[in-house]
Known about the structure:
- By secondary structure, this protein is α+β, with helices and mostly antiparallel strands.
- 21% of the residues are buried.
- It has two domains: 42 residues; 127 residues, no CATH class.
- Strand 2 and strand 3 form a beta hairpin.
- The radius of gyration is 24 Å and the shape is globular.
- 23% of the residues lie in helices and 39% in strands.
- An eight-stranded antiparallel β-barrel has the order 1-2-3-5-6-7-8-9.
- The protein has one helix and ten strands, in the order H-E-E-E-E-E-E-E-E-E-E.
Amino acid sequence: MLVYKIHAAGMLTWDRILLASVVMFTLTIGAMHSVSASDQMDKWQGVWFSCEFAQRQRAPDDGCLMFDDEGFTFTDGRLNYVRITESDETACRGEKVGQCFRRDRAAIAITSQDRGKLDMGTTNFTVRFLGCKQLFHFNDTTDYREIWPDEDRCFWAGKRHFYIAPYAGNVEFIDQ
């Protein structure tokens, strides 16, 4: 009987150690998840514009120093399409005046339109828009972030790659 009590007491000790280990592991994983989710959203802060001299599946050759007049915001679980309202830039592709602006411009005014629900991952994100959920992958480079749709595409998602970079100047949002 005494041996049984010692063995049972030993089991309780091992059970406690196991339970403490599981709790610590769970807390550690939870903390890592919280940090990575926060870090992930930090990676997408601000207003991002397409690189003017990128093409459908070719990176820009100017290091993304010139922005297209169209871009995105990734905030509050939503993807928003944005467009600059006042540009008189003449160095745009195709010599189209006002359809681009320099990345180092001090301030811009933009309009914004909702483009769907956004779910962020570590190397991809999904956008739910017009009843279809599209997976996009992304990769960071020194000058821009490349985004491309998964091979399984929604009807509204083409094969185009997006080469985008964050705008660092002041932004004024204009109501439409």
